[in-house]
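Observation: inputs received (chain + zinc ion).
Thought: call the complex predictor directly.
Action: predict_structure
Action Input:
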Amino acid sequence: MSATLRRQDVPPQPGPPCEVIRCGPGPGIRCQILSNAVWGCWTHWDGHRSRECLGEASDCAGHANGWPTRWKGYVSIWCAMRRSVVLLELTPASAGEIIRQAGCDKSLRGLLLRLDRHGSSIRAKIAVELSASVADNTNLPAAMDPEPILRKLWGWKVKD
Ligand SMILES: [Zn+2]
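Observation:
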């Protein structure tokens, strides 16, 4: 008598979905922005990973330990290559360039964004190109809220 096969018709996923991407060396990023505006926050670098900053006046472990601070910007995007909604992490310079090109009081939602890193260094300049979409954008997916994703990713305490 043969045992029952362990069957599954849905292919196994290679890993957890990559919810946060950044512009690295190699192929650039081509996407459509879903957020109305850049969402930014300060973080600390503890030598291994990013940690939350609660501000100098609060009980901030990063401030108490003197860990360097870094500003990170995020926009929610539709990534055609991944066919999914993800968060795009932005450097201060590339976030500033997106805001400058869009016009500081204009919504970013629906705009097409190209990011290309020139060189392999993490300090290499990122070229930003924003353009209007000619497609009908009324049925774009909803933007993601960055905060719960970042809190989960960085092991932050989740707010009650
Ligand atoms: Zn802090």
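Thought: report the result.
Final Answer: The domain at 21-39+74-153 is CATH 3.30.470 (D-amino Acid Aminotransferase; Chain A, domain 1). Residues 44, 53-54, 60, 62-63 surround zinc ion (CB under 6 Å).
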